[in-house]
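Operator note (shift B, R.M.): manual run for Dihydrofolate reductase family protein requested after the automated queue skipped it. Running by hand, logging everything below so the morning shift can see what happened. Input copied straight from the record, untouched. If output looks odd, do not overwrite the archive copy; leave it for review.
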Amino acid sequence: MKTQYYTATSIDGYLADEDNSLDWLFQFGEIEEIDGVDEDYTQFIDQVGALAMGSTTYEWIIEHENVLENPEKWPYEIPAWVFSSRELPKIDGANVHFVQGDVAPVHADMVEAADGKNVWLVGGGDLVGQFHDNDLLDEIILSVAPVTLGSGAPLLPRRITTPPLKLASVQKYDDVFAVLTYEVQ
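Run finished. Output pasted below as returned.
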Protein backbone atom coordinates (compact mmCIF):
# COMPACT_ATOMS: atom_id res chain seq x y z
CA MET A 1 0.00 0.00 0.00
CA LYS A 2 1.33 3.41 -1.01
CA THR A 3 0.15 6.98 -0.70
CA GLN A 4 0.68 8.49 -4.14
CA TYR A 5 0.47 11.94 -5.66
CA TYR A 6 -0.49 11.36 -9.31
CA THR A 7 -1.00 14.51 -11.35
CA ALA A 8 -0.24 16.43 -14.53
CA THR A 9 2.04 19.44 -14.40
CA SER A 10 3.53 22.05 -16.68
CA ILE A 11 7.29 22.00 -17.19
CA ASP A 12 7.61 24.92 -14.78
CA GLY A 13 5.70 23.15 -12.04
CA TYR A 14 2.08 24.34 -12.11
CA LEU A 15 -1.07 22.23 -11.83
CA ALA A 16 -3.40 24.92 -13.13
CA ASP A 17 -3.00 28.44 -14.45
CA GLU A 18 -3.69 31.55 -12.38
CA ASP A 19 -7.43 31.24 -13.19
CA ASN A 20 -7.50 27.58 -12.02
CA SER A 21 -7.94 26.56 -15.65
CA LEU A 22 -6.70 23.29 -17.16
CA ASP A 23 -7.21 24.41 -20.74
CA TRP A 24 -3.43 24.18 -21.20
CA LEU A 25 -3.72 20.44 -20.48
CA PHE A 26 -6.91 19.72 -22.43
CA GLN A 27 -5.37 21.03 -25.64
CA PHE A 28 -3.70 17.62 -25.94
CA GLY A 29 -7.07 15.87 -26.20
CA GLU A 30 -8.78 13.24 -24.15
CA ILE A 31 -6.69 10.77 -22.17
CA GLU A 32 -7.87 7.97 -24.48
CA GLU A 33 -6.40 9.77 -27.48
CA ILE A 34 -2.78 9.66 -26.29
CA ASP A 35 -1.16 6.31 -26.98
CA GLY A 36 -0.55 4.39 -23.73
CA VAL A 37 -1.83 7.02 -21.28
CA ASP A 38 -5.30 5.52 -20.93
CA GLU A 39 -3.87 2.06 -20.20
CA ASP A 40 -1.51 3.42 -17.55
CA TYR A 41 -4.25 5.46 -15.91
CA THR A 42 -6.54 2.42 -15.84
CA GLN A 43 -3.79 0.32 -14.24
CA PHE A 44 -3.13 3.10 -11.73
CA ILE A 45 -6.77 3.61 -10.73
CA ASP A 46 -7.35 -0.15 -10.40
CA GLN A 47 -4.79 -0.13 -7.58
CA VAL A 48 -6.41 2.79 -5.71
CA GLY A 49 -8.80 2.17 -2.82
CA ALA A 50 -9.30 5.72 -1.51
CA LEU A 51 -8.48 9.27 -2.57
CA ALA A 52 -8.12 12.76 -1.14
CA MET A 53 -8.40 16.21 -2.66
CA GLY A 54 -8.64 19.81 -1.59
CA SER A 55 -11.67 22.04 -1.97
CA THR A 56 -10.42 23.77 -5.13
CA THR A 57 -10.01 20.42 -6.91
CA TYR A 58 -13.44 19.28 -5.70
CA GLU A 59 -15.10 22.50 -6.86
CA TRP A 60 -13.34 22.26 -10.22
CA ILE A 61 -14.77 18.75 -10.75
CA ILE A 62 -18.25 19.93 -9.73
CA GLU A 63 -18.11 22.86 -12.13
CA HIS A 64 -16.48 21.18 -15.12
CA GLU A 65 -18.33 17.88 -14.91
CA ASN A 66 -21.63 19.47 -13.81
CA VAL A 67 -22.00 16.73 -11.18
CA LEU A 68 -24.50 18.51 -8.95
CA GLU A 69 -27.07 18.30 -11.73
CA ASN A 70 -25.68 15.01 -13.05
CA PRO A 71 -24.33 13.08 -10.03
CA GLU A 72 -23.62 10.04 -12.21
CA LYS A 73 -20.74 12.07 -13.71
CA TRP A 74 -18.82 11.95 -10.40
CA PRO A 75 -15.68 10.21 -11.70
CA TYR A 76 -14.88 8.01 -8.70
CA GLU A 77 -16.49 4.89 -7.29
CA ILE A 78 -14.02 4.64 -4.40
CA PRO A 79 -14.37 6.69 -1.20
CA ALA A 80 -13.09 10.27 -1.45
CA TRP A 81 -12.03 12.65 1.31
CA VAL A 82 -12.31 16.37 0.60
CA PHE A 83 -10.27 18.66 2.83
CA SER A 84 -11.88 22.05 3.28
CA SER A 85 -12.40 24.68 5.93
CA ARG A 86 -15.66 25.72 4.27
CA GLU A 87 -18.97 24.03 3.63
CA LEU A 88 -19.16 22.50 0.17
CA PRO A 89 -22.08 20.99 -1.74
CA LYS A 90 -22.55 17.22 -1.46
CA ILE A 91 -22.96 15.14 -4.60
CA ASP A 92 -25.94 12.80 -4.42
CA GLY A 93 -24.84 9.18 -4.20
CA ALA A 94 -21.09 9.93 -4.12
CA ASN A 95 -18.98 8.41 -1.35
CA VAL A 96 -17.47 11.73 -0.25
CA HIS A 97 -16.27 12.59 3.26
CA PHE A 98 -15.72 16.27 4.10
CA VAL A 99 -12.89 16.81 6.59
CA GLN A 100 -10.62 19.51 7.91
CA GLY A 101 -7.56 19.81 10.08
CA ASP A 102 -4.62 17.46 10.48
CA VAL A 103 -4.16 15.00 7.62
CA ALA A 104 -2.65 12.22 9.80
CA PRO A 105 -5.84 10.89 11.45
CA VAL A 106 -7.73 11.21 8.17
CA HIS A 107 -4.97 9.29 6.39
CA ALA A 108 -5.45 6.42 8.84
CA ASP A 109 -9.17 6.33 7.93
CA MET A 110 -8.29 6.41 4.24
CA VAL A 111 -5.82 3.53 4.59
CA GLU A 112 -8.45 1.49 6.38
CA ALA A 113 -11.04 2.22 3.68
CA ALA A 114 -8.51 1.42 0.92
CA ASP A 115 -8.27 -2.10 2.34
CA GLY A 116 -4.75 -2.85 1.10
CA LYS A 117 -4.96 -0.74 -2.05
CA ASN A 118 -3.21 2.60 -2.57
CA VAL A 119 -4.31 6.05 -1.46
CA TRP A 120 -4.33 8.66 -4.23
CA LEU A 121 -3.70 12.31 -3.42
CA VAL A 122 -5.45 14.00 -6.34
CA GLY A 123 -4.41 17.56 -5.42
CA GLY A 124 -3.81 20.37 -4.78
CA GLY A 125 -0.18 20.87 -4.08
CA ASP A 126 -0.51 22.35 -0.60
CA LEU A 127 -2.66 19.44 0.58
CA VAL A 128 -0.10 16.97 -0.77
CA GLY A 129 2.57 19.01 1.03
CA GLN A 130 0.73 18.45 4.31
CA PHE A 131 0.86 14.69 3.74
CA HIS A 132 4.58 15.01 3.00
CA ASP A 133 5.11 17.07 6.16
CA ASN A 134 3.60 14.18 8.16
CA ASP A 135 5.76 11.52 6.41
CA LEU A 136 2.67 10.07 4.73
CA LEU A 137 3.67 10.51 1.08
CA ASP A 138 5.37 7.53 -0.60
CA GLU A 139 5.40 8.32 -4.31
CA ILE A 140 4.99 11.21 -6.74
CA ILE A 141 3.89 10.43 -10.31
CA LEU A 142 4.11 13.42 -12.64
CA SER A 143 2.80 13.63 -16.18
CA VAL A 144 4.85 16.55 -17.45
CA ALA A 145 3.19 18.43 -20.31
CA PRO A 146 5.26 20.44 -22.84
CA VAL A 147 4.03 23.86 -21.73
CA THR A 148 5.06 26.55 -19.28
CA LEU A 149 2.49 28.64 -17.42
CA GLY A 150 4.62 31.20 -15.60
CA SER A 151 2.27 31.23 -12.60
CA GLY A 152 -0.70 29.44 -11.14
CA ALA A 153 -1.33 26.63 -8.66
CA PRO A 154 2.07 25.20 -7.70
CA LEU A 155 2.76 21.49 -8.04
CA LEU A 156 4.10 21.03 -4.50
CA PRO A 157 4.85 24.19 -2.54
CA ARG A 158 7.40 22.55 -0.27
CA ARG A 159 11.15 22.45 -0.13
CA ILE A 160 12.22 18.81 -0.47
CA THR A 161 15.99 18.61 -0.70
CA THR A 162 17.32 16.19 1.91
CA PRO A 163 16.85 13.42 1.34
CA PRO A 164 16.09 14.05 -2.31
CA LEU A 165 13.35 12.21 -4.14
CA LYS A 166 14.52 9.02 -5.89
CA LEU A 167 13.70 8.70 -9.59
CA ALA A 168 12.05 5.27 -10.00
CA SER A 169 10.93 5.37 -13.64
CA VAL A 170 10.56 7.51 -16.75
CA GLN A 171 8.04 6.93 -19.56
CA LYS A 172 7.33 8.83 -22.76
CA TYR A 173 3.89 9.11 -24.35
CA ASP A 174 3.85 10.28 -27.97
CA ASP A 175 5.53 13.65 -28.30
CA VAL A 176 3.47 15.02 -25.42
CA PHE A 177 4.04 13.62 -21.93
CA ALA A 178 7.04 12.51 -19.93
CA VAL A 179 5.84 10.57 -16.89
CA LEU A 180 8.28 10.72 -14.01
CA THR A 181 7.80 8.51 -10.96
CA TYR A 182 9.67 9.46 -7.80
CA GLU A 183 9.91 7.61 -4.51
CA VAL A 184 9.78 9.78 -1.42
CA GLN A 185 12.57 8.76 0.94
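Quick read of the result: The longest strand covers residues 3-10. The domain at 3-183 is CATH 3.40.430.10 (Dihydrofolate Reductase, subunit A).
Leaving this for review. - R.M.
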